[in-house]
Automatic annotation (TrEMBL):
It is found in: Cell inner membrane. One of its GO terms (molecular function) is unfolded protein binding. May be involved in the folding of the extracellular lipase during its passage through the periplasm. Pfam families: Lipase_chap (PF03280). It is a single-pass membrane protein. Coiled coil: none annotated. The lineage of its organism: Bacteria, Pseudomonadati, Pseudomonadota, Gammaproteobacteria, Oceanospirillales. Its main location: membrane. One of its GO terms (cellular component) is plasma membrane. It comes from Endozoicomonas montiporae. The keyword Lipid biosynthesis does not apply. The keyword Lipid metabolism applies. It comes from the Bacteria. This is Lipase chaperone. Belongs to the lipase chaperone family.
Length: 124
């Protein structure tokens, strides 16, 4: 029996999606992702099987939680920057403390990528 990753790899390969290309994520998966959350699992399971559907929906849930945490940080950071009673040094210190309190040292590495690439942050 194929593993979930192998099944998805072979599906992508059979659909003509090459590794590293912009088409690496099948358009079908993108279309499923746009569907209501209540339908996503069933659509994925029908297309790729239950194992892949479980992993994909779990991954999407984790991504959504990460985005929420990043968005909450951005809101609080903007609040600190808007506080006229703080000077630049105080603002920087509070922002650094906020980052340390919200993200583990491992997560801060990933978080830096988000800060350096604001287009990765989905604002809703």
């Amino acid at each position: 029996m194929f593993s979930d990753r192998l099944r998805l790899f072979f599906y992508c390969y059979s659909q003509g999606y090459g590794a590293g290309s912009e088409g690496a994520v099948p358009k079908r998966v993108q279309a499923i992702r746009q569907q209501p959350q209540s339908s996503q699992y069933n659509l994925l399971a029908a297309e790729f099987g239950d194992d892949v559907a479980e992993r994909m929906t779990r991954t999407w849930d984790q991504q959504a939680l990460w985005q929420q945490r990043v968005q909450a940080f951005v809101v609080d950071k903007e609040r600190i920057l808007a506080d006229q009673s703080l000077n630049g040094v105080q603002q920087a210190a509070q922002i650094a403390e906020l980052r340390k309190s919200r993200f583990s040292s491992q997560e801060q590495k990933r978080f830096r990528v988000f800060l350096e690439n604001p287009n990765l942050i989905v604002i809703k």
